[in-house]
Amino acid sequence: MNKLFIPPHIFLEMGSWRQPLLMVDRISNYQYGEKGFIQVIKHVTYNEPYIPGHFPDNPIMPGAIISEIFGQASEYLSFLTDICEIYQERYGISLRSLRDICSKIEDDDFLEVVRVRRAQVQGVLAAQNIKFKGIAYPGDTLEVTSQLAFSDNNGFKHYSVCAHIGKKEISKGTIINYREVK
Q1: Which of 31, 64, 78, 146 could cysteine-pair with 74, CB 3.0–4.6 Å?
Q2: Nearest to residue 132, comparing CAs of 73, 178, 69, 75?
């Protein structure tokens, strides 16, 4: 398991979601660049508000929730990429991995970049061609990867996403993200 860690108070500042819609528990890996990606973790528990009703006698994580995790992972990828680019431009320091980000995470300069950028960005997400091959049960740990596939001429970013429980792929597809800067 990766020991790199973004403290919870900073993790919350990076995303705009709060309970009960905060679906990412932890960012486990990030790589900046043309082949950049993010990996996130979601622990499925009986305490999730949707579990008792989906389904009462055989609880499983709804596919719509997995799609939401895909969207949140993709937005974290976009956001961290923004942060790396702004930090490089402003301070001349290249941040290319989760290790690099964690080395600066408590610095006032880094936190200022995070706060300013979060206040500037808003957007919408759409799921496309999401396929489900397996089920996530309470007690499972969902590992989600998002990688930028391409950006189109209209400003939409298309991400290839997949979810695994251990080595078993349970879902994959495309997330489309449109972001505006205020």
Answers
A1: 146
A2: 69
pLDDT of residue 2: 67
Q: What average pLDDT values come out for the chain (182 residues) when binned by 10 residues?
A: 82 85 93 96 93 89 96 95 97 97 96 96 92 97 97 92 98 94 85
Nearest Cα residue to 139 out of 22, 61, 77, 57: 61
Full-model pTM: 0.94
pLDDT given at position 20 = 78
Q: Token pair for residue 165?
A: 């429980």
SS3 10: helix
Burial label for 104, CB within 10 Å (0-12, 13-18, 19+), is middle
Spell out the SS3 assignment of 43-104.
ECCCCCCCHHHCCCCCCCCCHHHHHHHHHHHHHHHHHHHHHHHHHHHHHCCCCCEHHHHHHH
